[in-house]
Write a structure and sequence with these properties.
mainly alpha, globular, binds zinc ion
Length: 55
């Protein structure tokens, strides 16, 4: 199952959605996005927890 980070889900008024097919890629993509666009640096551990919480 592809993992997607949907920026809106984290409370941003933003239409960004990751396109990577694998978890590592999606994490990489989203952490770059949040860093550049929102000035927030999520650690990989935190993003991993976001994924797990969604089940
Ligand atoms: Zn965003």
């Amino acid at each position: 199952m592809p993992i997607k980070f949907i920026c809106k889900d984290y409370g941003f008024d933003c239409d960004f959605v990751t396109t990577s097919k694998d978890v590592a890629g999606a994490i990489e993509e989203y952490s770059k996005h949040s860093n550049h666009e929102h000035g927030i640096e999520y650690s990989k551990e935190i993003l991993m927890q976001f994924i797990m919480r969604k089940g």
